[in-house]
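Sample A.
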Amino acid sequence: MPDYRSTTHCLAIIVGATGLLWLWLVLPRELLTESGYGTVLLLLVGGLNIWVFRGATRPLWRGVRPTASQDVGRGLVLVPCLLFHLLTLPGSLLLLVALALT
């Protein structure tokens, strides 16, 4: 049976994941040590990537083929999901390098 979720549900997942990542980056770094901050950041990014993949990317990629008008909405939500996967892991690694250099 194909996995199907509405585009609204998938959009809510990607917005929620981005919001959690933004919230973590805005929190003061004094809450954890530098190494603890980086470790939690990598775990958070990994967990969010799995959550976005299972909750939004895969259902949009493999879901049932809707009508042509719904297909445009799927494409508009699928692009941010793919960008999230492509940008979060390299971005978090660059942040860790920047933290190590300071």
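Sample B.
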Amino acid sequence: MSDQSSQDQNEPRSHFITRLQTLERQVGENVLAALESEGCVAVLTTVVSGLRADRVVSVPLDGEQAKDVSAVLAEAQVDPDESDQDEPLIGFHVVLKNDEPDDA
């Protein structure tokens, strides 16, 4: 067993190198990559906070998913007859129910 571990130590380790980019460039590249997905008509992108670093996440949406997101956004719009809030609304959180059975 010690022969195997000494061989593993002598083998070069794989590594990944990525250039640091501006947020605008990273988001743009993520969006363009997601748009290349089959059936993609829109992309949903967000920044996800992490312990070591934040990440940019882009999800390709097909036509039905884009329609669902549009419906959620339309529902989330503030009614102009409502009184002004103390602070402007800059985001929302929505849980979408999956119509598929749990077994799928």
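B remarks: The two ends are 43 Å apart (CA to CA). The first helix runs from residue 2 to 10.
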